[in-house]
Structures are given as C-alpha cells and as structure tokens.
Design a protein that fits this description.
heterodimer, A: mainly alpha, B: 72% helix, globular
C-alpha cells in the first residue's frame, strides 16, 4: 500500500514537472552536457515556448 | 478461476451500467440523484475501454510494442522523447481539456439532463475517443505528422489546404465565443473583474521571476502565483465594496470586450515568456486541480438533479439558444463527446512522446473518456441548480424581459418557479449585484460548483469565495486559450501571407507581427462585439456556429482516419470511423442548413435579417442585419470547405476500394525498438 502511494505520488510529481517543462529542461541540459544557469534556461525556454505557441490550442 | 472471476466482474460492470442507463433514461417525474449519471457513465467508459478500444487496438491497428516509435527513432530531447505513459496521459489530458467540456454541457442543460447525458456517454465511446485514438495512432505511425500534413498526403492537396483554412476559421469563432463567455460572466461584477485583472500583473511577476530570479523553477513560481491569485479573490471583495475602486472595476459588456481585445493583441505581440507562458503554466495547474476537485465533489456530495429529464425546450424554443434537440444538442456539446480540435492535439505534441505503441490506447482513448467524465460533472453541476435559477442566470433580457420582475414572471410561467427575492438573495450570497442575464454558462456553472464545494468545505458563508474561485478558474483558462489562440492564429496567417510576400512570413519581423496580430484580433474581436450587442444574447448565434465548425473539423479528422483504415484493411473496418463520420455529417449539415435557412428568426440567420429589415431602420438594426448575413456566410463557408474535403475523400475511398487507386502505405518503416523498461520510468 505504502509502495503504491509512493509510486502514485512520484508519477503525479513527474506529470506536474512535465507540464511545467522542468523535465524537458533537464533533458536539454543532459543532451547538451550543460549545467543549469539563467542563460541556459532562457535559451531553452525561448525555443520551447516558440514551438509550443505555434500549435493550435484545444477548446 | 482467474478468468472466471474477471468475466464475472465485467458482467457485473455491464449489468450495473445497463441498469443505471435504464434508470437515467426511464425515470420521469421524480428527482434523480447524480449518482445514477455517474454510475452509467463510469460503467460505460470501463466496458468501452476494456472491449471496444482493445478490439480496435488488436484487430484494426495491430499495435506492436516491438516497433520503435518516432519518440525513440527521432529522439532529440526536445519534442521527440520517449516518456512514461502516465506522464503522456497527463500531458495529453491537460492539452485537450479546455473550456468546451464545461460550457457546452451547461448550455445544453436547457433541454434537460437526459439528452446531454446520453450524448456525452454514447458520443465519446463511439465517436470522440475513437477519433482521438485513430488519429494518434496514425500520427505515431507517420513520424508524428500533423492532421494537415496527413490530410495532404493521404487524401490530396485540396484536402490538406482545406483542413488548414478550416482550422484558422474555427479558431476565430472559438476565440470570439469564449471571449463572450468571459464578458457575460464579468459584466457588472467588480469582484470578478478585479480578480481576473490581477492575474495579469501576477503573470508578469511570474514571468520575471522565472526569467531573472529563479530560472527554471516553474512549479515553485506556479505555487506562488496560485497563492497570489487566491489572495486576489479575497482582495476582490474589498475592492468591489470600495467606493472608488469598485466603480473602476464595474464594467459593461462593450468595455470588457474592448479590454479583452486589447489584452489579446498585447499577449500576441509581447514576448511569450513575459505574460503568455507563465499564465499558461498557472492556468494548466489550476485547471487540473479544479477538475479533480469537481469530480471528487460530485462523487462525495452526489447532488440531486433539479432539472427535469426533458424540458419543453426540446421543441426548439429554448431561451439560451434556439433550435430543436436534433441537431442542436449534438452541436452544443462537442468537447466531452467528440471534438475536432482534439485531432490537432493527437497529431501535435503527444505522438512525439509515445514510447510504446501499446501506450496509444490509454493516452488516445483513455484520456478522451476522462474528458467526457469532466463534461458529465459540468452537466451535473448545472442540473443540480434549481431550473428557475438556471434559466434566470442564463436567459438574455431580449427573451425573458428586461427587469427582474419580468424575467422571473416569464421563467415561472414556463413552469420553473423563481422570484426576484430569491435571485437577489442568491446574488448577495455570492457577492454580486445581480445574476440575471449572464448568458454563456460560466456563472451558472460557477454557481453549481460553488454549491458543491461549499457543501464539502464550509457552508453558505463561504459560497461567495467558491463562486468567485470558480469564475476565476473559468476566466483564467479561457483567457489563456484566447492569448495562445491569437498567437497561433497569427503564425498561421503569417505562414499564409508569406506565400504572397516573403517578409510577411517572418515571425520575428515586427511590422508583420503587429499587422497579423491586429488582423487576427480584429477578426475575433468583431464577432465578440457582435455577440455583446446581440439582443438575443450572442450565445444564440455564436455557440452553434462554433459547435458546427468544431464538429466539421472532427469530420475532416474522421475522413483522414477512414482513408488510412481503408488503406490498411479495405472496407472491413471502415465502419469504425465512417459511423461517427456519417452521424457528424448529418448533424452538422442539418444544423448549418437550419442556421442559414430556417424560417424561425431565432434559428435562421437570414430569417432574423429579414425580420430586422421589416422593422424601423436604425444604425444598430442595419449593423445587426449585416451581422446576421455575415454569420450565414461563415456558416455557408464551413459547409463548402467540408463538402470539398468530404467529396475529395469519397473519391479517394472509391478509387481504393475499386482498386483503381494505389493504396500507398505512408507509414514509417518498421524498426525494432531498443528501448529498455528502465527508460520509461
């Protein structure tokens, strides 16, 4: 039961972090071999948001 | 033993669902508890997921976990990334859940709870979930291609171009109609207007926080933003009662519409990180939280449905929007049953995150079932209100009378008793001056939600907080759809204009940005102002137009899906998508025909124009006549566009089935997966 709750909580946090683009930022850092910084976040988020807001939004 | 037990469980689920559905459909003349609706819906969803989606996955799609998905083959860490299925599920659900499943069922409650409930349950199982599932599958097998690209490649250039133009037009109508929902919810409401206005500086603060102070801490800043928004709800009550500030935030319909148009323009032209993105993060989390809360609230409170199963307005004389139950119930509720917009999401980000083909089923079919459940919760919240109150809140002055006494007398005369004192007390309880003439669904849904939430946490004393919390939640994410939609419309227009003169296509060239943002905002702003000025409430003309457009987009998606199924299996399984397609084409053509040509002035745009022409001619009536003719033309254009793609599809299907056209397989070639289980965590 405890393990099930733990698993549920981990998945929930992972969903929220995915929606918040935090996981995507981690992937970006890993792939490009960089460390977190203000400059890096701005570079990542500009590209991410540019793509995100070119797609139609659902009603 | 295990198999016998499972069979027994599924027989029990099927019998319970059938019993609950029969109870919902057959009980008349007594109050029905919402538990019946919830049970009928959940059992049907479970059975449909277990059997129908499994059949489609195994026999029709032949989903194969040995095949590498585009997320693995084209992995780049940005948009293509194999992701845990529950994370993709959450991502996809957050993307498809907009204001539609909340507003549509609330408006359709004017027919009674039964038509909406049956359409939500059956529509999603046989139409909406199937569409999302098949389009997602098709996109995954085609390297994550968009609906427009698939239409172009599978059907032809005409189909592809038509699909893109249809999407742009639908977005303009969508932005106008949801803008109208916000305007009608906030007019004359300083508390609500202040709360929503406060979300803008809060979003800018979040944007600066993320950009300069704590880069990358999106969850952290969203939590701070949420706390600030809740604080602004409490502050809103003080502002509303302040002699000076209160008047600043007490705005009429036109003033709010202009404010919304200016906001849409600014949000489209400003840097995305400053306003749009932080609002979007905040709105996504608030949306998911409130939807979860509403679901739990309905399950815990299980309110009785005060609305009858069927009202007399099934004959087409409804006060919120005119038109008979067929086809207008099926146009009014789109998201929650079947929505063409979902096909754009299913062929957008989601296919690029799917790690294994078996994940397509829970993500595509499963998340649409959850969206349908949200629509059912909205229907329950609206139908739990006393019908007299529901109609008093939602009916326009042009139908029920311009004073509270006249409005309540008209509504009581329909058989739904309500008094001016009752409405005044209710307005006082939720901290508003009046709740009359708030057509659009948002305030009545907020009232229903507030009643449910206040029964769990607090009592009538906190009703005003929950009401304004619900209004804030609805307006927050509707505004997010408006600003993001304006931006997307701008990109689509720039893409199109770039073919005429190249610099106009450059998304970073400021003159082009300002021009195209202005054109898109002017387009939806025109329809928004038209809705605000409409004496019949605006929703009467705009929501059916939006519903028709959205369902026609679903028809486009189902045309593409059918073409793909025919290429895979010939005629054998084409019924899976042709059946919902035939229904949608019947419903939307019939709805569009009536909206253009019906002799009833409240239904037909042209009849309304003729009626206005026969009366005294003022500048306002001339404008209304033009607006009605414009709406008829837009409706006609939708029909022409979809007839084009439908005719093109039928031509392709006939060629494929006769063997005169080559069934070219456009799927990406099979590549065995190398993905380990640990990479999906």
């Amino acid at each position: 039961m405890r393990r099930a709750w733990h698993g549920f909580w981990r998945t929930l946090v992972a969903i929220l972090r995915e929606l918040a683009d935090e996981r995507a930022y981690e992937r970006h850092l890993r792939i490009h071999g960089r460390v977190p910084s203000g400059e890096e976040w701005r570079r990542f988020s500009e590209e991410r948001l540019r793509q995100k807001y070119q797609r139609p939004r659902c009603c | 033993m295990g198999k016998l037990f499972r069979t027994g469980v599924w027989i029990l689920v099927a019998c319970t669902g059938a019993f609950a559905l029969a109870g919902v459909a057959l009980r008349r003349g007594e109050t029905l508890n919402s538990a019946w609706l919830v049970t009928a819906a959940v059992c049907t969803y479970l059975a449909a997921y277990r059997f129908y989606s499994a059949f489609i996955a195994a026999k029709v799609m032949a989903l194969d976990d040995r095949r590498a998905t585009p997320a693995e083959r084209l992995r780049n860490g940005h948009d293509f990334e194999p992701t845990n299925k529950w994370i993709v599920f959450g991502h996809h659900f957050a993307a498809i859940a907009g204001p539609g499943p909340l507003v549509g069922p609330t408006l359709a409650a004017q027919f009674g709870y039964l038509p909406g409930a049956l359409w939500i349950i059956l529509g999603v199982v046989l139409g909406g979930a199937v569409q999302d599932f098949v389009v997602l599958f098709a996109s995954v097998r085609r390297d994550g291609k968009s609906l427009g690209q698939m239409a172009r490649e599978e059907i032809g250039r005409i189909g592809g171009g038509t699909a893109l133009l249809t999407v742009l037009l639908i977005m303009i109508i969508l932005l106008a109609v949801i803008g109208l929902v916000v305007v009608n919810a906030l007019k004359g409401s300083p508390w609500g207007t202040f709360t929503i206005a406060a979300t803008m500086p809060i979003a800018v603060f979040m944007g600066l926080y993320l950009r300069f102070w704590r880069p990358g801490r999106v969850l952290e800043v969203s939590l701070i933003g949420f706390a600030l928004v809740v604080a602004s709800i409490f502050a809103g009550e003080w502002v509303a009662h302040h002699p000076v500030f209160g008047s600043w935030f007490t705005l009429g319909g036109i003033a709010l519409a202009i404010a919304l148009i200016i906001y849409g323009y600014a949000a489209s032209a400003l840097p995305v990180w400053l306003l749009l993105a932080p609002r979007d993060y905040l709105s996504t989390f608030v949306k998911l939280g409130v939807v979860l809360l509403l679901g739990l609230g309905v399950l815990i409170v299980r309110p009785d449905l005060q609305m009858p199963a069927l009202t007399q307005f099934t004959d087409g004389t409804g006060p919120i929007f005119a038109g008979k139950i067929f086809p207008f119930c099926f146009i009014t509720i789109a998201c929650g049953a079947i929505s063409g917009f979902h096909a754009l999401i299913s062929s957008g980000t989601t296919p690029k995150l799917i790690a294994r083909e078996s994940h397509i089923r829970p993500v595509g079919f499963g998340s649409m079932l959850l969206e349908s459940f949200v629509a059912m919760m909205a229907l329950v919240a609206a139908c739990a209100l006393e019908p007299g109150v529901f109609f008093a809140v939602n009916s326009p002055a042009g139908i029920v009378g311009a004073t509270p006494a006249a409005a309540t007398a008209t509504i009581t005369g329909w058989g739904y008793p309500v008094t001016p004192e009752q409405m005044r007390d209710l307005a006082r309880h939720v901290g508003e001056e009046t709740l009359f003439y708030r057509t659009g669904g948002a305030p009545s849904l907020a009232l229903g939600m507030a009643h449910i939430f206040s029964r769990i946490a607090g009592n009538d004393a906190v009703l005003r907080f929950w009401y304004h919390f619900a209004i804030m939640f609805e307006a927050l994410f509707i505004l997010t759809v408006i600003d993001a939609g304006t931006r997307v419309g701008r990109f689509m227009l720039q893409d199109f204009l770039g073919h005429i003169w190249k610099p106009l296509g450059r998304t970073s060239w400021m003159p082009s940005v300002l021009l195209t943002s202005g054109l898109i905002v002017a387009a939806w702003g025109y329809f928004l102002v038209q809705g605000v000025l409409d004496p019949l409430g605006g929703i009467n003309s705009l929501w059916p137009l939006f519903g028709i457009a959205n369902q026609l987009l679903a028809a486009v998606a189902l045309c593409v899906a059918t073409t793909i199924l025919i290429k895979m299996h010939g005629a054998k399984y084409m019924w899976i998508t042709v059946a919902p397609l035939a229904w949608l084409v019947t419903v939307t053509y019939s709805g569009a025909w009536q909206k253009i040509f019906s002799d009833a002035p409240r239904v037909g745009f042209l009849a309304q124009a003729r009626l206005l022409e026969a009366g005294p001619q003022t500048a306002q009536t001339k404008q209304l006549i033009f607006n009605n003719r414009l709406d008829a033309a837009v409706c006609g254009l939708f029909i022409v566009l979809v007839t084009t793609i439908l005719a093109d599809s039928v031509r392709v299907w006939a060629g494929l089935l006769r063997g005169t056209r080559e069934a070219r397989n456009l799927e990406a070639p099979f590549v065995p997966t190398q993905l380990g289980a640990e990479e999906l965590g």
